[in-house]
From TrEMBL:
Enzyme Commission number(s): 4.1.2.25
One Pfam family cited in the UniProt record for this chain: FolB
Function of the molecule: Catalyzes the conversion of 7,8-dihydroneopterin to 6-hydroxymethyl-7,8-dihydropterin.
Annotated keywords: Folate biosynthesis, Lyase
Domain Dihydroneopterin aldolase/epimerase: 6-117
GN (gene name): folB
Family as reported in the entry's similarity comment: Belongs to the DHNA family.
InterPro entries reported in the protein's UniProt record: Dihydroneopterin_aldolase, FolB_dom, GTP-CH-I_C/QueF
Family annotation (SMART domains): FolB
Record pathway: Cofactor biosynthesis; tetrahydrofolate biosynthesis; 2-amino-4-hydroxy-6-hydroxymethyl-7,8-dihydropteridine diphosphate from 7,8-dihydroneopterin triphosphate: step 3/4
Protein name: 7,8-dihydroneopterin aldolase
Length: 124
């Protein structure tokens, strides 16, 4: 089946993430990069959003997952995003999710975790 790729680059959010004392007290910026390969089940009709996967819904799910509660590890947050996307968006076949902290270290642009997963592939 044909697929279409939806891409998000540096979705910037303030998240409650981390294990350090200052991270437990305040939000910090994170960036999410994501690629979703989506089944193309029908021909695109330019005047009907229902003929494609509305990327606004994907974005809303990512934002909600990243901002709803404190998470200690980037690895955990990344896996939670993957699980939610597969649960809520059955047309997503594969995805790559990268979550990074741009302020974690002063000597690099960011540190992050990236996960690639296909539907029905074990997470661990």
């Amino acid at each position: 089946m044909a697929t279409r790729r939806i891409i998000f680059e540096q979705l910037a959010l303030d998240a409650r993430i981390g294990i350090l004392e200052h991270e437990l007290r305040a939000t910090q910026p994170i960036h999410v990069d994501a690629e979703f390969d989506v089944d193309v089940a029908q021909q695109v009709c330019d005047t009907d959003i229902h003929t494609v996967l509305d990327y606004r819904q994907l974005r809303a799910a990512i934002v909600d997952e990243c901002t709803r509660r404190h998470v200690h590890l980037l690895e955990t947050l990344t896996e939670q995003i993957v699980e939610r996307i597969f649960r809520e968006f059955p047309d997503v076949r594969t995805m790559r999710i990268r979550v990074s902290k741009p302020l974690a270290f002063s000597d690099c642009a960011a540190v992050g975790i990236e996960v690639q997963r296909s539907r029905n592939e074990p997470s661990n």
